[in-house]
Amino acid sequence: EERSMRDRTLLEVKDTDHHIPWKVHFNLGNSSRQVTQCRNSIQGKIFLTDELGYVCERKDLLVNGCCNVSAPSTRQYICKSCLANGCCSIYEYCVSCCLQPDKQPLLEHFLNRAAKGFQNLFTAVEDHFELCLAKCRTSSQ
């Protein structure tokens, strides 16, 4: 039922003053907030990105959904495969790069120019992570 309610909200235009709650700084290592669960990009066959901006191999994903930051291949805010214009060839790297705090101006510019067809989708996202998932899944910008 919760999923169907959320799907219906994609069909409704929310108010134009909808603001994304930007997370200014993530750092699992020295965060004062104890992270017990992470959302992640789920779909990658080899790589996943968690909501803290870490990219890891699927085998290095912890049971709580977070990447194991101690794994040698885990990296945060990785923009490998991403061009200066924001286009990336690997979805998980796109999400990780998008989560970088200094990308907020680029995301705001993208949202201001988002096609009308995507208006409902991008106003339905609730936070920075959801915005990055949606942007990287639907846009080549």
UniProtKB/TrEMBL annotation:
<keyword id="KW-1133">Transmembrane helix</keyword>
<protein>
    <recommendedName>
        <fullName>SREBP regulating gene protein</fullName>
    </recommendedName>
</protein>
<comment type="similarity">
    <text>Belongs to the SPRING family.</text>
</comment>
<dbReference type="InterPro" id="IPR019352">
    <property type="entry name" value="SPRING1"/>
</dbReference>
<keyword id="KW-0325">Glycoprotein</keyword>
<keyword id="KW-0812">Transmembrane</keyword>
<keyword id="KW-0333">Golgi apparatus</keyword>
<dbReference type="Pfam" id="PF10218">
    <property type="entry name" value="SPRING1"/>
</dbReference>
<keyword id="KW-0472">Membrane</keyword>
